[in-house]
Amino acid sequence: FTSFPAKLDDNYSYTRHHPGIQDDDLMDLDADDLLGTDGSRLTCPGELLTSSQAYMRGHGTYVDNEEVIASVAGTIERVNKLVTVRAISSRHVLYNPEVGDLVVGRITEVQPRRWKVDANSRQDAVLMLSSINLPGGVQRRKLESDELQMRTFFEEGDLLVAEVQAFFSDGAMSLHTRSLKYGKLRNGQLVTVSPILVRRLKSHFLTLPCGVDLILGLNGYIWVSKHVKESEQEGEEGFDAEAVYSNQNDEIDASTRTAISRVTNIIRVLASHFLPLTDTLLLQAYE
């Protein structure tokens, strides 16, 4: 018969130890230095980070035997008692928002007096009912009747362009659409690229000579649609205030559809070569 060594009762055989230093002392001594807050320290999968009794686990970690262990290779980040590991090699880079950023998002959930929005970030953004314009541009306090009609404004799957207004205590974005340039998106196509390819420009609303409008969301979501005249955007003659939340697309001729498809393909090609998407480069590529 083959005999196997007896199983040890402690965790010494499969955890890393330093000679002459007790585990508890090591945890208390190096926890803050090990974790840090600036994301400058690298870790690898399976590495012991800290105790689950002292810290909460976040993305990129798991708990085993009351210890927080890294599940991916990346940088350690700590916010108060929350420990996360941001992967250093990922095919999908998430958006790091800032106040004032222009973003394109998709409604994922309708909740009381708010919508949840997928903005390509670590967690869904929030669009409050009080942060939108009512049909017709009426400025007043939102009533219970408005809350009952929330799905007539935005429902699951709707695309919108908004601005980052603030952040909640948990880090979630608070959006607003209180501008005629913001709101529900129609008559176009969504293209997704890495957020690092979208540079901050003086204006993220671009119009190409081919009759195509672009909205370059800093979160990597780009909206390509047929051109809308300035008068229709700014509420002058021809502006339909009641249609701002319509789900019906306008009639789009074949030439405009071709131009939209061509622009979306150009964006995908540029993104595949990791070229920054600027107004000058997009215009040159189209020509």
Automatic annotation (TrEMBL):
Residues 95-165 form the RRP4 S1 domain. It is found in: Nucleus. Residues 42-79 form the Exosome complex component N-terminal domain. GO terms for biological process: CUT catabolic process; exonucleolytic trimming to generate mature 3'-end of 5.8S rRNA from tricistronic rRNA transcript (SSU-rRNA, 5.8S rRNA, LSU-rRNA); nuclear mRNA surveillance; nuclear polyadenylation-dependent rRNA catabolic process; poly(A)-dependent snoRNA 3'-end processing; TRAMP-dependent tRNA surveillance pathway; U4 snRNA 3'-end processing. It comes from the Eukaryota. GO terms for molecular function: RNA binding. GO terms for cellular component: cytoplasmic exosome (RNase complex); nuclear exosome (RNase complex). Residues 188-228 form the K Homology domain. InterPro entries: Exosome_cplx_N_dom (IPR025721), Exosome_RNA_bind1/RRP40/RRP4 (IPR026699), KH_dom_type_1 (IPR004088), KH_dom_type_1_sf (IPR036612), NA-bd_OB-fold (IPR012340), S1_RRP4 (IPR048565). Keywords: Exosome, Nucleus, RNA-binding, rRNA processing. Belongs to the RRP4 family. This is Predicted protein.
